[in-house]
Amino acid sequence: MAKEKVVLAYSGGLDTSIIIPWLKENYDLEVIACCVNVGQEEDMEAVKVKAIESGASKVYVEDKKAEFVKDYAFRALRAGAVYENKYLLGTSFARPLISKVLVEVAHKEGATYICHGCTGKGNDQVRFETGVFSLDPTLKILAPWRMWDISSREDAIDYAQKNDIKITVTKEKIYSRDQNLWHISHEGGDIEGLENEHKEDIVYMMTTPPEKAPDKPTYVDITFEQGWPVKVNGEELEPVELLTKLNKIAGENGVGVIDIVENRLVGMKSRGVYETPGGTLLMEALKDLETLILDKDTFDFKKMISQKYASIAYSGQWFTPLREGLDAFIDKTSKNVTGTIKLKLYKGSVKIAGRFTDFALYDEEISSFGASELYSHKDAEGFIKLFSLPNRIRAYKKHK
Hints:
Its main location: cytoplasm. By secondary structure, the protein is α/β, with parallel strands linked by helices. It has three domains: about 5-75 and about 85-165, Rossmann fold; about 175-295 and about 335-355, Argininosuccinate synthetase, chain A, domain 2 (Alpha-Beta Complex); about 370-400, no CATH class. The protein has helices at about 15-25, 45-55, 65-80, 95-110, 125-135, 155-160, 200-205, 240-250, 275-295, 295-315, 320-335, 365, 380-385, 390-400, and strands at about 5-10, 30-35, 60-65, 115, 140, 175-180, 185, 220-225, 230, 235, 255-265, 270-275, 340-345, 350-355. It has a five-stranded parallel sheet, with helices on both faces. A five-stranded antiparallel sheet has the order 10-9-8-13-14, with helices on one face. α1 (about 15-25) crosses α6, α4 (about 95-110) crosses α5 (about 125-135) and α10 (about 295-315) packs antiparallel against α11. The radius of gyration is 25 Å and the shape is elongated.
């Protein structure tokens, strides 16, 4: 009788490296590793070899960079999704795509289980499992961190060394990292101590520390069509190329790092350092372009949409009618969000250096102090009386 199969979300990192032998020790299952390439800087052939050497019967390496950037990262960008006013959410919207691929591989292989290496304290366990169940509620989940006796990353390192599993993490450099084309996150180690300044030279992988960035500013033009980024410095680029180029430009200028204590979905607060160089430029440019083009009421409502979209992405609720409905609103309100924003980058800072669009509601003639056909200074008197009418009535009643 053939063994039941489990599809493991595999990265080749510490957690998933020890999961393959652990599964084989504790379950009579055929382990199929699935690595979804969303832009992490890994040697995928080496990852494949490592999975086989660790005991996997088969390895899928799925290149989903283009889909990730266009359908996930850039959709969240258009929505203005920023979690708790700072976090640009790189990990959050990679998880639903990875979940989708895991389900597809499970269907192809006839697997009963999907396994992941997320801890019982993290957000990702919720995102992965919610994503899987949204696409196929019949699949079963194996989550070793909620099952085994390993209770820390130090324990995991000991287990790897005991079983001759090659890992790059050490107890001295014990950061937990997650990377894709949009960002890289850093957690754990001395970052967990709130009193500690994070160590730029050790932590940063996509960004030059600002004080080591060039001593002269860099200018970059970003062009959008209907809210989608399409050009850098006048050159039309596909989404992956465009984001890669902006990551390099912003990273070299020390742009895009945040150090945040955030509210996790599971209830606790956690500290993380996030590098999102290109994404920071895109978000700054798009938000500024929208200030020119969206009317006041739409702009105000979009801010509420952005906050809700960020919450949905952070919570792993990507495959929901609500998210699709919000995308429909964004598609409609982004019809005229077309133009170019020039940014000035200097040692970690970003400044708007020029705005170019045919769809701006800003009119220099109207906004200036001079006269114009559409606005008369005299009109303001009647407007103010009507605008302040509730205040005047309230004051009248009070003094009467």
